[in-house]
Specification:
By secondary structure, this protein is an alpha+beta fold. It contains seven helices and 18 strands. It is elongated.
């Protein structure tokens, strides 16, 4: 087993296991065993078949400060690779390197007698179902968490706020016809393309701290064959929100009225966050598990690495930043205590 301060070796150990969202069973079983061997008391929080969150605690029921992050990753799996002073691979910064730093910090804090817990969840990259399960579990468990420090790559700054996320599927319907006689049909794809071209001109809410609402077209599909006028088309959108979801949906509904149908998908709201003296702060545009973990106490957000390389083939974290995160998490917890 790596020593409590060998955060790089621990990060590599976690990264060596493929835990793409939905297939985290092996990873969570490994983390359970890893933390149990390090002397933590373990609780498995069921999520779905063969999937669970892991809560590691030093005492019985708290109150504690909880260090938490997710152990699922986006595809494709990229094995860890150490090159000089940089750790490369899937999860290096999002978020297995962060989990390793939290484990090392947790070991130090536990040795000091600090009331600290570790919570590792699944499903953050898709539906946040691990966080939902943990948030429901704590209500009935008697466990008390005063604050939760969520780990995401924030370039070693405390997040003052995070944008929310709202997924919408836009669908248009047409009339199929032989493509040699397009006047006999109606193209759903042409309708969708015309709609999407108007997106940049829409006026979405803006927030003084969080900034602008942004919208990404994540995927487009439609039609049945090259020689058939397209009878259907759809686009998957994700809005990074700075206001209540209803405000954003009203803009979408006015835009699509009479021309397309909208299906609302998973969403998380924007949040403002706690800060700690002595730490540089920033606002992040990405969504996190924090809005779903409301029963775990006052939220904070911190992590080494940059979101700009997360989800990319060149995902990485600098070793000095990873090691510094161990002390940073410990300082944050001590300050909150």
């Amino acid at each position: 087993m790596p020593g409590s301060q060998d955060v790089v070796a621990l990060a590599q150990q976690l990264m060596a296991i493929d835990s793409t969202s939905g297939h985290e069973g092996e990873m969570m079983a490994h983390v359970h065993q890893l933390l149990e061997q390090r002397g933590w008391g373990i609780t498995r929080i069921p999520v779905s078949e063969r999937r669970f969150a892991v809560l590691a605690r030093a005492g019985a029921h708290g109150p504690v400060i909880t260090l938490s992050t997710h152990l699922d990753t986006v595809p494709p799996y990229l094995p860890p690779r150490l090159d000089g002073d940089v750790l490369w691979g899937r999860g290096a910064c999002d978020a297995k390197g962060i989990a390793a730093a939290m484990i090392a910090a947790g070991d130090t804090l536990r040795a000091e007698g600090a009331p600290v817990a570790l919570l590792f969840v699944v499903g953050e990259e898709v539906t946040h179902d691990g966080a939902h399960a943990a948030n429901e579990w704590i209500v009935d468990s008697g466990f008390v968490s005063r604050a939760i420090v969520d780990g995401e790559p924030t370039e070693s700054k405390l997040g003052r706020g995070t944008k929310g996320a709202l997924r919408v599927t836009v669908r248009t319907r047409g009339q199929p016809a032989h493509s040699a006689y397009p006047h006999l049909g109606h193209s759903a794809i042409e309708d969708l393309v015309a709609l999407l071209a108007q997106l940049p001109s829409l006026e979405f809410p803006r927030h003084e701290l969080l900034g602008d609402t942004t919208v990404n077209i994540g995927g487009i599909s439609g039609g049945v064959a090259d020689n058939v006028v397209a009878p259907w088309a759809e686009a998957r959108l994700m809005a990074r929100t700075v206001s209540p979801a209803d405000d954003v949906m009203r803009v979408f509904e006015r835009w699509a009225a009479g021309r397309a149908t909208l299906e609302l998908g998973p969403m998380v709201p924007p949040v403002t966050l706690g800060t700690v003296p002595g730490f540089e702060t920033d606002v992040v545009a990405f969504a996190t598990d924090i809005p779903v973990l409301g029963n775990w106490g006052t939220p904070y957000l911190y992590g080494p690495g940059s979101i700009h390389v997360a989800h990319r083939d060149d995902e990485h974290v600098r070793l000095d930043e990873l090691r510094a995160a161990v002390d940073a998490y410990a300082r944050i917890v001590r300050s909150l205590l």
